[in-house]
Write a structure and sequence with these properties.
By secondary structure, this protein is mostly beta strands. It contains four helices and 31 strands.
Length: 508
């Protein structure tokens, strides 16, 4: 019937004058363009959070901070082209001067959403985000790290990629491979977290039979929440040194042995969220975005980050090392003589944002952010302040603009919905969303996992207890087992060998 319809139209056109055909072709082309001009785009941005300079390099044993946890959008837009963190940090090493020109190593992660978040909701998850040398591997939690995605949607377990880079210390915390889940009701509550090195392992003189030495700094995640407080998990020192097995010149440059830079980087990275762009009949560009939202802490501002501290070895390392060597038991708190409270400066920092078409040569312009700015509430608290002439406020949230117009100054300016021409089709076109996958997350303990290692630590010696099941609150159920601490996540004996760690079989 489609072919017949086209034939009928062709036959009718053949009997009208050429000029009529020409005018009709232009009209049809204009009509087609009217309905075809909406293009996919991305909104992105970054907030630089400014803190005082720490000149005393003895504060090279990590940091802690408190970050607000909240939904950035009213509804979860799905993983496609959506990745953003909340107030986060970038910890790296103090440099020796012997690093290569291209040298990147961090502990970042934190609260947020990522492209590979399999079971996302509007509430962020927490990942550890350890990045070894130049992204050689990364480790996000127990059993979670760098991985290719197989044709069936599963992660590839045939290469480690950092999936064995984290060992869990506490048996009071259930950490699924997709990230640590938070209560689904959060809207601005503060999660305390940070990383402090602990001497939980012995130094290794011959890492994996090589001449490469691995230090014993086990960078340990500490959490402070309503229902969990204390050390949760740590990066295995060998996670950092593995690249040095391929290039011995890198030995001694990583976090297994190097102190951290006390001037930790802090920021909010909105790597991208879906948007759309269109033109009106006069060629003016307009954009539509998902409306960002922030919890209302006061009349016109929100608290996002506070109480940053950095630490020296006097905070905990020295007491633990003495204890492990036969001295008195270390007390269960940080020594204040090894702690330094970090102040915010420059009104908390600065920010930038842009909206860009997804095509290679598409438009890309900054947003005029005159409706939002960093604000330093006091010396140890910062957040955002909003212009309520542009930003809406309800009982719980500040709600940022949805529509923008590209003006002659080449900046996107926020506008009201009533100022968007109907010819753009933006009013009737939804910003794209993507469904989250419901493919189960499998690990080698599950018989349906593509990669099996009968002689490996997953099954030899295997778990000591389980299976157990738990509802994680994000619509998934996790099946998990408990292992003796040294396996499967530790590659070498650890001091705390009497404890247990768990490993997931399936999250679905």
């Amino acid at each position: 019937m489609i072919c017949c319809g086209r034939a009928d139209i062709s036959l009718q056109i053949a009997h009208v004058p050429f000029m009529t055909i020409f005018i009709l072709s232009i009209f049809l082309g204009l009509c087609y363009n009217t309905y075809a001009q909406v293009v996919n785009a991305t909104k992105s941005g970054f907030t630089w959070i400014s803190t005082e300079n720490i000149a005393d390099k003895t504060y090279g044993s990590g940091y802690t901070m408190y970050s607000a946890a909240y939904p950035i959008f009213k509804n979860y837009p799905g993983p496609d082209r959506f990745q953003t963190g909340l107030s986060s940090s970038w910890l790296t090493t103090q440099r020796t001067g012997n690093e290569p020109d291209q040298f990147y190593i961090t502990i970042e992660g934190g609260l947020g959403w990522w492209h590979d978040t399999r079971f996302g909701t509007k509430i962020p998850k927490f990942i550890m985000g350890g990045v070894s040398f130049n992204f050689y591997a990364w480790a996000n939690g127990p059993g979670a790290g760098r991985s290719d995605i197989l044709p069936n949607g599963q992660r590839d377990w045939s290469t480690p990629g950092g999936k064995y880079g984290v060992a869990q210390l506490s048996n009071k915390l259930l950490w699924a491979p997709d990230g640590l889940n938070l209560a689904q009701s959060l809207n601005g509550e503060m999660l305390g977290y940070g990383y402090i090195p602990l001497p939980l392992t012995e130094p290794i003189q011959n890492t994996h039979g090589s001449n490469i030495e691995t230090g014993n700094q086990c960078w340990t995640l500490f959490l402070n929440s309503t229902n969990f407080k204390g050390p949760a998990s740590f990066f295995l020192p060998t996670f950092w040194t593995e690249p040095a097995l391929q290039d011995p010149l890198l030995e001694g440059l990583f976090l297994d042995s190097r102190p951290s830079e006390p001037n930790v980087g802090f920021g909010i990275e909105h790597a991208g969220s879906p948007a759309i762009i269109s033109k009106d009949v006069n060629g003016n560009r307009y954009a539509k975005t998902n409306r960002l939202q922030f919890p209302a802490s006061d009349e016109d501002n929100t608290i996002l980050l506070n109480n940053i501290s950095v630490y020296s070895k006097n905070a905990l390392w020295n007491d633990l090392e003495s204890w492990f060597n036969g001295g008195p038991a270390a007390l269960p708190h940080l020594n204040e003589t090894g702690s330094y409270g970090v102040s915010f400066v420059n009104n908390g920092g600065d920010m930038a944002a842009e909206i860009s078409e997804n095509s290679n040569n598409g438009v890309k312009h900054d947003i005029d952010l005159n409706y939002i700015d960093n604000v330093q509430q006091n010396e140890n608290t910062m957040g955002f302040k909003f212009d309520l002439n542009t930003v809406n406020k309800d009982a719980n949230n500040f709600i940022l603009p949805e529509y923008f117009k590209l003006d002659p100054d080449n900046l996107w300016h926020a506008i009201e919905e009533g100022s968007v021409p109907s010819s753009t089709q933006l009013l009737t076109t939804a910003v794209p969303v993507s469904p989250r996958t419901e493919i189960a997350y499998l690990t080698p303990l599950d018989p349906d996992c593509h990669w099996q290692d009968p002689n490996g630590p997953w099954k030899n010696p295997g778990p000591t207890a389980g299976p157990f099941k738990a509802d994680l609150g994000d619509g998934t159920t996790v099946t998990y087992y408990w292992y003796r601490f040294v396996r499967p996540t530790c590659h070498h004996p650890c001091k705390s060998s009497g404890r247990y760690t768990y490993q997931t079989s399936k999250q679905s």
